[in-house]
Predict the structure of Acetamidase.
Amino acid sequence: MTDPLILTVRPEPDAYAWTFGGAPPMARIAPGTVLDLFTEDCFAGRVRSEKDLVSEVCEFPFLNPQTGPFHIEGAEPGDTVAVHFVSIEPARDWAASTTVPLFGALTSTHTTATLQPPLPERVWIWRLDRARRTALFQAQDSDIEVELPLDPMHGTVGVAPANLEVRSALVPDAHGGNMDTPEMRAGVTCYLGVNVEGALLSLGDGHARQGEGETCGVAVECAMNTVVVVDLLKDIATPWPRLESDTHIISTGSARPLEDAFRISQLDLVQWLVRDYGFSAPDAYQFATQAVESPLANVCDTNYTCVAKLRKEWLPARETYRGVHARLRETARALRG
């Protein structure tokens, strides 16, 4: 086994992408390349204290900067890009979370218009202990402090959309984007359908941790040092972003209303069972109904994202995606030494 090519990218502040599609590639890479990346937080590093209100220090729409895009040689529509997360590590010893006016699941929004004023802006700075793997919550209106375990993830991973579209990095859809699922953690392989030549892969929006649903609209947002292996599966289509871990296969769906996001993820899982595991559609529908886990990813973004996941131990012993997850796991082990 030859050592993979490793590309290290530490973007300058003006080198981030703010959209999927419409941005020129940062670099061209061959399948099998290891990307050693720095990603900035969703606030572009500008929210550093309780006094730094998003409305004052950030400039809309320049939120959620992405490292990329990367042109993957040989990628064409109808193919699938596999992104295996080797490691996701906070790059700082602090992270920020906020309330943002007219954003979040428990407040008026631009699309859920109500008479009462928006919730006030507030900022919480979370202290990260990277050695002990903890994130410290400090209440603002009492002396309550709670340590939660770090669970680093990427909220945003995607490729350029189809049909010449350019989508804000705040939007999740069939191309990936701002899905905000805690399933996107180290050890997982993400499958993304290619829509344009080169795929144009980008990622960002690191979270030190996030609850399912991301209810207030903002996770524990932090810059990340992330290592991924990128591979290409020719002539395999992936209609919606999928993930594979050592224990589960996972489908996603992003839409509004929430029930449509749920339906998309469930249908995609059923279709995955039919394509790769030998089920008929009625059998897959019945089996998934009784075995699926359906955590929410986000109920706050421009589109909501639902997840449908099944335990591998309950599935027939069949190969999916040509066994690329297991192969990339071996690459990851070799990289870690």
